[in-house]
Amino acid sequence: MKKQIVVLMTDTTRKDMVGCYGNEKMKTPNLDRLAQEGIRYENAYTCQPVCGPARGAIFTGAFPHTNGVVTNSIGMGDNIKTIGQRLHDNKIECGYIGKWHLDGSDYFGNGVCPDGWNPKYWYDMRTYLSELSDEDKLRSRDSQTSYTEGFSEEFTYAHRCSDRAIAYLNEFKDQDFFLTVSYDEPHGPSLCPAPFNHMYDGFCFESSPSFQDDLSKKPMLQQLWAGKNLHAPESEINKASKGLSLFLGCNSFADYEMGRVLDAISKLAPDAMVIYTSDHGDMLGAHRLTSKNAAAYKEVANIPLIIKGGAKGQVVHEMASHIDIAPTIMDYFELPVPKTMEGKSMLAQIYDPSVKINDAVFTEFTRYEVDHDGFGGLQMMRAITTKRYKLVIHLLDTDEFYDLETDPYEVENRINDEAYEAVRNELHDKLLAHMDDTRDLYRGYQWKMRPWRKNVTPDWNNGGYTRQRENEEYEPRQLDYDTGLPMEKAVRNKLLY
User: Fold this and answer.
1) What is the distance between the alpha carbons of residues 109 and 157, in angstroms, rounded to a whole number?
2) Distance CA 355, CA 214 (A)
3) CA distance 151 to 126
4) In degrees rounded to 5, what are phi and psi of residue 226?
5) What is the pLDDT of residue 288?
6) C-alpha torsion angle, residues 434, 76, 347, 39 (rounded to 10)
7) Which distant-in-sequence residues (6+ apart) come within 8 Å of 50 by Cβ?
8) Which residues are catalytic?
9) How far is Cα 364 from Cα 128, in angstroms, rounded to an integer?
10) Where is the Sulfatase N-terminal domain (predicted)?
């Protein structure tokens, strides 16, 4: 049987913006149908809630601090290989259509197809803009275009991405392939035609404690980020607006466009595995915050993940992470998972949802974007989340700890609550070990020396280990610093030599 995978991806779709996750007011019939035909993950997390870093983790299988994309507008290292490169080198056809955000250029990309992907179908946002007149370029960046007479779906980036995806499926339906269709929508300017442009007029979210969080025991970053919302009543934060209506309408429009591709898959590649996810979410007023930044709140970090190709109609409550997608794809194509990939294959779980892959998942943040002076600037965050608990370390700010069972809205910061000392410290140790295991270049004693952590002594040598990389599919074996000879162990205690 042919081996075929299609990854469908949207930008800034919160989990509760997909109908099958429980909000009946969200109109996403195609993703809802995909969930019925596959499995839906309740506890899937992004590796970093920013476009570029999130995508870098998905398509390299390495965390942002490893692949180099620690913020928007920073490119990957030359020795970092994407899943497209790895599969192409194993004679598997690979297509990437849509937003890329990994070349270190501006928001739209540089228009150049990276190694491993089929250049005939390469279609980043710069490629799209190159098709437009200067007048239409301006229209494409103006949300008001959605309400102008004569505006149609054919103008949008989403529609043109779907057209190319359908053409790709027609061309390669009879062979193994890996195709990604990466929509910019519903990310602003959230262009969408009628009826989507007015579909959510008058909508606002149900009242919840998250809108009433006063942030008094939260990081200063969040208090500054809240701005004028810090002391506003919920009625001013959670309310119907033209911007929210268009954003949610564009989300439903993206679902419509994905439906076109899903219909083509059903016809042309019915046995293909289909993976849907979003890079991150949006606060949309929760905790008095908007957009995304150095936070691990579920609104930005707990992303939708739906996979068709194994079990059907089931919900997985075990922890899942974007870091596991690339290893899963390698495993699906019966290829070895490279040692440089920092996740694990989910394939066994896709076929049998009772299988447990992760006890905990990790989310990080360094800064929002190199280009921007604002958005808080440097914000060093590392987080670990289990089904019940979430620990968030802000290196330069107040830390957070939540009991998700008793406080599902993540309002009560229990970082200093002695009743949680044992489990909090256990998660802290696991987070520090993860930073060591993945050679997090920002690790150091400062992450250990937290005000709430007793009896921890700083150490110049930290762990005392040297941790070289085994990237031997594409590089010669690294040489040991002390001998100049090929390393015998990738991880060894330098203090013993």
Assistant:
1) 14
2) 40
3) 21
4) -65, -30
5) 98
6) 100
7) 71, 72, 280, 292, 365, 368, 369
8) 51, 101
9) 31
10) 4-333
Rounded Cα–Cα distance for residues 415 and 412 (Å): 9
C-alpha–C-alpha distance, residues 114 and 129, integer Å: 18
Q: How far apart are CA 30 and CA 252, in angstroms?
A: 9
Q: C-alpha distances in angstroms, 89 versus 20, 83, 131, 155, 474?
A: 37, 10, 31, 35, 11
| Closest among 205, 262, 287, 257 to 22, alpha carbons compared | 205
How far the first Cα of the chain sits from its last, in Å, is: 52
How much is the pLDDT for 371? 87
For residue 253, report the phi and psi dihedrals to the nearest 5 degrees. Answer: -65, -40
Decide: 18 and 287 in contact? Cβ < 8 Å: no
The amino acid at residue 43 is N
DSSP code of residue 189 = T
Beta-carbon-side half-sphere exposure of residue 247 (alpha carbons within 13 Å) = 20
Confidence (pLDDT) at 495: 80
Q: Give CA torsion, residues 328, 334, 339, 344, to 10 deg.
A: 30
Instruction: Report the Cα 214 to chain-centroid distance in Å.
Output: 27
Within 13 Å and on the Cβ side, how many CA atoms surround 113? 15
Rg (CA), the chain: 22
Query: What is residue 471's predicted lDDT score, i.e. its pLDDT?
Result: 87
Residues 442, 446, 452, 454, Cα dihedral to 10°: 130
Under 8 Å CB-to-CB from 167, ≥6 apart: which residues? 121
Question: What distance separates the 2 farthest-apart alpha carbons in the chain?
Answer: 74
pLDDT tens digits for range 80-118: 999 999 999 999 999 999 999 999 999 999 999 999 999
| Model pLDDT, residue 497 | 63
CB-based contact 129:108 (threshold 8 Å): yes
Which CATH number describes the domain made up of 4-358? 3.40.720.10
- Under-50 pLDDT residues of the chain: none
DSSP structure string for 134-169: HHHHHHHT-GGGGGSTT--GGGSHHHHHHHHHHHHH
Task: Please identify which residue in the block is written with the tokens 């914000």.
Answer: 379
User: pLDDT digits over 176-223, tens only?
Assistant: 999 999 999 999 999 999 999 999 999 999 999 999 999 999 999 999
Task: Name the residue ranges covered by the structural domains of the chain.
Answer: 4-358, 464-497
Amino acid letter at 444? G
| Residues 6+ away with beta carbon under 8 Å from 344 | 324, 327, 337, 357, 358
Q: Which of 229, 363, 210 is nearest to 295 (CA)?
A: 363
| Per-residue confidence (pLDDT) for residue 458, from 0 to 100 | 92
